[in-house]
Automatic annotation (TrEMBL):
Record keywords: ATP-binding, Cytoplasm, Nucleotide-binding, Nucleotidyltransferase, Transferase, tRNA processing
Role this protein plays: Required for the formation of a threonylcarbamoyl group on adenosine at position 37 (t(6)A37) in tRNAs that read codons beginning with adenine.
Classification via InterPro entries: DHBP_synth_RibB-like_a/b_dom (IPR017945), Sua5-like_dom (IPR006070), Sua5/YwlC_C (IPR038385), Sua5_C (IPR005145), T(6)A37_SUA5 (IPR010923), TC-AMP_synthase_SUA5 (IPR050156)
Protein name, UniProt field: Threonylcarbamoyl-AMP synthase
Keyword ATP-binding part of the UniProt annotation: yes
Alphabetical list of SUPFAM superfamilies matching this protein: YrdC/RibB (SSF55821)
Listed GO MF terms: L-threonylcarbamoyladenylate synthase
Length: 330
């Protein structure tokens, strides 16, 4: 199944073309504030099946339904009181809420047969315009081949999916740079399924309670695993092609180096290639640069990527999570 993949500027004409293609069951890469998503009509099982095929994603891995606002979200899932409070505080924004599904609102295939549905209201002008023009929930996983690093630019999407999707709307680099934080709101109190672009501390301030994390998956599992809780959490999901070595205190021969806050570990000058996630030590900037720098260092011809220790607070939790997966054995 090959398609002619076009790249259009995310202006009024581009957005109208995106909406037209989505209404016809097409596959359109859409910019959001976190990463680029690969969108399709979440109510159209045929479109969802072709999306899974284009990504090479196992079809039991459920997709996030994207909607323009909380009113539309209430048509897709039953928002619990905690979900309502979190939606009021953080939507639009980099937060995905898993709630009991309203069965007829999205195709069962998009939910991978689950009784729950993941919902997100993105804070991006273009994503908002596409969702309003589409007038239906849009299922959108990150716009990468399954198992690859998420795309934060139109060029990343094209590198992974050229010939497999219909359109890429180009709105420049993603501001946040890591995927949304996912909370399971189906139980008595919310549980963190995936750390992401919204920091735990902000969520805990609204809940007035500490947030529990779901048990991490086993290292070495892949997104071919059966029935994972949040398959995006699977250990080796975010994978460059060369090995990643975390908490590196020195650069070893042949390695590329990913640093933070101006760190210069021994061997710095010998690194095959080097990038600093944020010379100023800003974790928000570091998250925004993470995937682009991983891709760049992955393509530098090094035998591995050494990563210096990073702080764990704020967006550091999501960065550490993605780096752990990038480093997981596979
Ligand atoms: O920032 C984001 O969330 C991006 C942009 C495009 O919105 N999307 C994204 O989608 O990261 P994806 O498909 O790469 O990750 C969605 C995660 C998967 O790990 C999936 O397992 C989980 O959400 N998920 C979806 N529905 C779920 C459900 N009902 N219960 C638990 N986890 C669910
Ligand atoms: Mg993904």
């Amino acid at each position: 199944m090959t398609r002619k993949t076009r790249v259009l500027a995310a202006d009024a004409a581009g957005i109208a073309e995106a909406a037209r293609l989505l209404a016809g069951g097409g596959l359109v890469a859409i910019p959001t504030e976190t990463v680029y998503g690969l969108g399709c009509d979440a109510t159209d099982a045929h479109a969802v099946a072709s999306l899974y095929a284009a990504k090479g994603r196992p079809s039991f891995n459920p997709l996030i339904a994207h909607v323009p606002d909380v009113a539309a979200a209430r048509g897709v899932g039953r928002l619990t009181p905690a979900a309502e409070a979190l939606a009021a505080a953080f939507w639009p924004g980099p937060l995905t809420l898993v709630v009991p599904a309203i069965a007829e609102a999205t195709s069962e295939l998009a939910r991978a047969g689950l009784a729950s549905v993941a919902i997100r209201v993105p804070a991006h002008e273009v994503a908002q315009a596409v969702l309003r023009a589409a007038g239906r929930p849009i299922a959108a996983p990150s716009a990468n081949r399954s198992g690859h690093v998420s795309p934060t630019s139109a060029a990343h999407v094209l590198a992974d999916l050229d010939g497999r999707i219909d359109l890429i709307l180009d709105a420049g680099p993603s501001a946040v740079g890591v995927e949304s934080t996912i909370l399971d709101c189906t139980g008595p109190s919310p549980v963190l399924l995936r750390p992401g672009g919204l920091a735990r501390e902000a969520i805990e301030a609204v809940l007035g309670a500490r947030l529990d994390s779901a048990a991490p998956p086993l290292a070495g599992t892949d997104d071919d695993d059966p029935a994972p809780l949040a398959p995006g959490m699977l250990a080796s999901h975010y994978a460059p092609s060369v090995p990643v070595r975390l908490d590196a205190r020195e650069v070893r021969p042949g390695e590329a180096l990913l640093t933070f806050a101006g760190a210069r570990p021994p061997g710095f000058g010998q690194a095959v290639a080097q990038r600093d996630l944020s010379p100023a030590g800003d974790l928000v900037e570091a998250a925004a640069n993470l995937y682009a720098y991983l891709r760049l260092l992955d393509g530098a011809g090094a035998r591995g990527i050494a990563v210096v220790p990073l702080p764990g607070h704020g967006l550091g939790e999501a960065i550490a999570d993605r780096l752990r997966r990038a480093a997981a054995p596979r």
